[in-house]
Specification:
This protein is an alpha+beta fold. It has a single domain (3-182), classed as Gcn5-related N-acetyltransferase (GNAT) (Aminopeptidase, 3-Layer(aba) Sandwich). 32% of the residues lie in helices and 27% in strands. Strands 1-2-3-4-5 form a five-stranded antiparallel sheet, with helices on both faces. Strands 6-8-7 form a three-stranded antiparallel sheet. The two termini are 26 Å apart.
Length: 183
């Protein structure tokens, strides 16, 4: 599945993307709201997990290709949440943009395409998102997308006392998305 927006194409990550993808995942500014930057080996393993998720579920995190330049601008898409929490099993939407593509509305354009795929052809009943309270740009986008806040939770993959353990949770149902789309 490829998704077309006015400025971007969401497409599967390709072998040729590995170096640019690793640069994004290793960038300190991009990863400031994550526990650690990824090494090249960790980024490659992440890309392999994304490919396996696509094979199993027919969706995942797509590459965001900036059409005017053909550049890998980041990733955005839908993934099943692989750990246990009060809201799982569930599908999350997520995004990550290279520094040169931030603050241009590209994450919102990509997220809207991903939600349309999730609630359209994939017919998902609900999509969740989560981030740190300090990541105002991310949760601000969640709210612009029509996602409703649903409290906080402690991320189970981070140890007790970790400064990034507490996350804000957002969700949107298929009926709520359809109602917004029909506006």
């Amino acid at each position: 599945m490829m998704l077309e927006g006015p400025r971007i194409t969401l497409r599967p990550l390709a072998e040729a993307d590995r170096e640019a993808f690793a640069a994004i995942n290793g960038d300190a500014e991009v990863m400031r709201h994550f526990p650690a930057r990824l090494t090249r080996a960790e980024s490659d393993a992440f890309q392999d997990r994304i490919a396996a998720h696509f094979s199993e579920h027919d969706f995942g995190f797509w590459a965001i290709e900036h059409r005017a330049t053909g550049t890998l601008a980041g990733l955005c898409g839908l993934m099943t949440i692989p750990w246990q929490a009060r809201f799982t099993p569930a599908v999350e939407i997520g995004w990550r943009l290279a520094p040169g593509f931030q603050r241009q509305g590209i994450a919102e354009e990509a997220a809207r395409l991903a939600l349309a795929a999730g609630f359209g052809p994939l017919r998902l009943p609900e999509i969740l998102a989560f981030t740190l309270a300090a990541n105002e740009r991310s949760w601000g986008l969640m709210e612009r997308l029509g996602m409703a806040a649903d409290g906080t939770f402690d991320h189970p993959r981070l140890p007790e006392g970790h400064p990034m353990r507490r996350h804000r949770l957002y969700r949107i149902t298929r009926p709520a998305w359809i109602a917004r789309a029909l506006g």
